[in-house]
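pinging the channel bc i need a second pair of eyes. not urgent but kinda urgent?? the chain im working w is below, pasted from the shared doc
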Amino acid sequence: MGLQSDAVALLSLVSELIIALDEEQRIIAANAAAELRLGHSRAALEAKPIESLLAPGFAGAWQEMLAEVRAAPAGASRSREGELKLAGSGGAALPVLAILHRLEAPQQAKLALVARDAAERKALRTEQGRVEVLEEANSALREAMLHAEQSTRVKSEFLANVSHEIRTPMTAILGFTEELLDQATNLSASRETIDALNTIQRNGDYLLTLLNDILDHSKIESGRLELERVSYSPIAIVRDVARLMRVRAEAKGIPFRVEFETELPTRIEGDPTRVRQVLINLVGNGLKFTEVGSVRLSAALVESAGAARIVFEVADTGIGISSADRARLFQPFRQADGSTTRRYGGTGLGLSISKHLCELMDGSIEFESQPGRGTTVRVSLPTGPIEGVERTRPTEESADTPRGDTPRVAVPRLCGRVLLVEDGADNQRLIRLLLARLGLEVSTCENGQQGVERALAAREAGTDFDLILMDMQMPIMDGYTATRILRSRGYTGSIVALTAHALHSERGRCLAAGCDAFATKPVEQRDLLLAALALPPPQGRSLEAVPK
């Protein structure tokens, strides 16, 4: 409730009781006068339904005011006056003359209740007095929301900078670790060497997961988390999650199985990135809290009354959760109890984020658990229209591959020219190495100005680059400016943004500058390969695979 606290601070000198409500008439902010006159602390007031503060017999008057405010046509007054009695903490009723105002701005607060003690308000019953009070409240609310929005912007900028400062070195750490793992595997290095590299990679991935959780929690808290809606394969999502979780299962020696309980549509609609994130959180928790036994991930299609939903289930034989601890399971920064945090680690954000994501996707998440016997978590999500969509039931898969035997995918060979515009020497060296391993010819620049000059010179000479990989945050000239300049000069070649910013708005900013696609650091070889193959080349040339 940080934003509401900012608003309350600005309204602390207003003598009227001012209470801000959301669409469901729950209190999200109250000023000092409301706390004093009603005898409730701010914490006690927040999230309460407003009707819980009405004295007996006044619910009807409140509903009449609310109905009139909501029914007011565009251009008409959006405020209504009425007499109410508010119940204080001691049971005494406070008669008030109240003004209910409907707020127009797209903010969390949808209604503002401004109330004055009826005895004090008698002198202000004229229309002018009513307007002045309302204008004072509106002005204070506008100022409070402006301050809150500024605070949110500062917080978002800070998180974006933190994300950039962490993701940039993590690109080099994880990228070179992957390269060393490839070499160690090919050269049959010692088990100690491979284990050490896997440890670096695993802990680097954990830091990125932690960073992503903090960013997501911030976006959820501010109401700025956005979803996409695209067609995706639920089967591919399950298999991808199983592949990623295999390393953790191997490290603990826990059998991990994937089961497809029914035929599944090959394509459904939704946000595959967020579905994948939820499943990774749930499977990760299952593996974390299971010492003996197994973890199972299953998927099934459930159809009822013309609506179809896909149900993912994660079942483990871990420590389980007591009934006393279940109430706080989905609260942010909370785990079952303090001993859980000390023993297993973690921030307590994963389940809270998963619950919010499921709700944003019009889905649900529920669980069954017994202490000492394990936990089963079910996620139910709508599929969107699936009439006529092909269905299939894949065979069950086991992810209990023996340690050290995780298969490494063969890297195809490509033919093409790439311009890499990247100021970080370590990342430039890594990405150049990864591209060269794909068989690509790579030229490098250290800033956007050099990138513009090289790209335009190559076009003038008739030797266009097949692909430009453009870092977006560089000295002298950043990638946004460089891309805009190239597009303004008629450059039509493929440009992929490389950015260490993970906020959803960053994707739109890159595409608005003229980039064709977007990749978030740390960049893996798989990301580069997909970027190289997916985009149309300039002047009809292509990044072609070389036959082996």
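so Confidence is low (pLDDT under 50) at residues 339-345, 398-407, 537-542. and The chain has three domains: 2-152, 230-398, 414-545. — does that match what u expected or am i reading it wrong
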